Amino acid sequence: KLLDESGVQSNPDSRSGVKTKPPHPQKTCGVCLESFHTSKPPALGCGHQFCQRCWKQHIEFAVKDGMSQGIPCMEQKCNLLCHFDFVRQFYTLPQDPSLEAAYNAHLFRISVSSHYQLRFCPGVDCTYVIYGETPKPRKVQCTGCKTTFCFDCGTPPHIPTNCETIKKWLTKCADDSETANYISANTKDDKLPSTQSLIRETKNTFIPDFCWMCMGDWKNHGNSYYECSRYKENPLIASTNSQHQAREALKKYLFYFQRWENHNRSLHLEAQARSQIQQQIEEKVNSNQGTWIDWQYLLRAGELLAKCRYTLQYTYPHVYYAESGPEKTLFEYQQAQLEVEIEGLAWKLEHVGDYQRGDVENQMDVSEKRRQTLLARFVTA
Amino acid sequence: MTVPRRITKETTRLISEPVPGIVAVPFEHNARYFQVSMCGPKDSPFEGGSFKLELSLPEDYPMAPPIVRFLTKIYHPNVGKMGRIRLDILKDKWSPALQMQTVLLSIQALLSAPNPDDPLQNDIAQIWKDDEELAIKTAIEWTRKYACGD
């Protein structure tokens, strides 16, 4: 029964049992409605007989049409799939190389995509197949086109968020980002304009350091008290009316979306900055300030910054959907720690002249350790 | 363009042994295009109505399924606003051994047994699930309004 359901032909002996029925000297093919004379019309294990020409047409059409699941028997409600040898007899006589090639390509695609340890590389125009020992969500890189993706769901890597959550988050962003844009465009936020105008007006005068996330004074953002990445839910929210709740829900989403977007933008900006680092290094080497090897740490720092920021970006969807509890509190704490170090690293990299190599390398080490701590729970899981 | 023997045979059979309640007439200049009129099945909200459909046979028929569409407005969860029909044998469950006659009979059966769990029109399906009485009332109304014209 299982074999029948999966469309696989059962024991070949039972097939011959069906076929030994006395062949009618003349039979009408159920597809073209013409009669045909043959003692042994082609049929699969199910015994449904059709004429040679119809089978060939059926197979040709199925191959041309994309053949998503294999080629079924022509009889209605028959789930049996044509096996390789059965199909082959139709493209070998008369020789049809294009049909054969297309059929083989489809077979290959079906067998790879249905195999639990194999994945097609999602990279554009990449034909590589990736093999994974165990089919679980993890970051893999294609050796051909260098695309990185999650082995389980094929999207860009998203640790520590899981596959299901990232899908929900991305759909939500695709749906709601316009809303976010609309709100930021059409409503007045009392903090933002003043701070921005402050930055604009006081270009040449002294401005105190401020946090780019919350626009607040950076002085309150010491190592031990960094809370910008955490959304503080209103404890009284349950008792208020639905309009307030809806507003609060939107506020919470926008909070995380803004951070997600900010890091995404920073990633792009820092990618540009990395290409400038290369130029800086060349200039420095040409003006006899150390050797090429001496400055390599800057490039490494740039790459590490991108890696850490990428991880940090993907922590926000996780927190957005996480249920509150000690685990979430711990995660938010680690997230905040990572955020501080990353911003520190970004700052030092932007102001290379002011910092020693030791400072930067130390900062790199701390950042990477923080990243590892944050991810430790998710990697082993 | 020649028409395959199968289409000729099927057409002959459709005309010589018609199924009660279904009339299919091929177009004069196009043997692959049929005007169909179908009576609403007994004991269904579509009873008494006469529904017009069009059926066309694609180039690859019978390897590819025929294309069928309601021309008369009908209140049914599996029929779209433009008359498209959501029926498994018209899509992935098509088999070359099926014929026009079986397809039309299946559509008639779909009128008797709407399937709101696999809808083409979500709003109608929702009403069908929540308040079947209202849905049936509306379907009868539509049948009287659009399918009893002449």
What would you say about this model in short?
The complex is a heterodimer of chains A (381) and B (150). In chain A, 54% of the residues lie in helices and 4% in strands. Chain A is mostly helical and 381 residues long.
Description:
The complex is a heterodimer of chains A (381) and B (150). Chain A folds into 2 domains: 27-99; 173-189 and 199-378, Four Helix Bundle (Hemerythrin (Met), subunit A), CATH 1.20.120. Mean pLDDT of chain A is 77; it is low at 12-22 and 190-198. In chain A, a hairpin with an 8-residue loop joins strand 3 (118-120) and strand 4. In chain A, strands 1-2 form a two-stranded antiparallel sheet. In chain A, strands 3-4 form a two-stranded antiparallel sheet. By secondary structure, chain A is mainly alpha-helical. Chain A is 54% helix and 4% strand. Chain B is an alpha+beta fold and 150 residues long. Chain B has a single domain (5-147), classed as Ubiquitin Conjugating Enzyme (Roll), CATH 3.10.110.10. Chain B has helices spanning 5-16, 100-112, 122-130, 132-146, and strands at residues 22-26, 33-39, 50-56, 67-70. A 4-stranded antiparallel beta sheet of chain B has the order 1-2-3-4. Chain B is globular and about 50 Å long. The N and C termini of chain B lie far apart (36 Å). The model of chain B has no long low-confidence stretch (mean pLDDT 88). Chain A binds chain B through residues 30-34, 48, 50, 54, 57-58, 60-62, 65, 72, 74-78, and chain B through 4-6, 9-10, 60, 62-64, 89, 93, 95-98, 102. Chain A: InterPro entries: Ariadne, BRcat_RBR_TRIAD1, E3_UB_ligase_RBR, IBR_dom, TRIAD_supradom, Znf_RING, Znf_RING/FYVE/PHD. Chain A: GO terms for molecular function: ubiquitin protein ligase activity; zinc ion binding. Chain A: Residues 25-232, 29-73 form the RING-type domain.
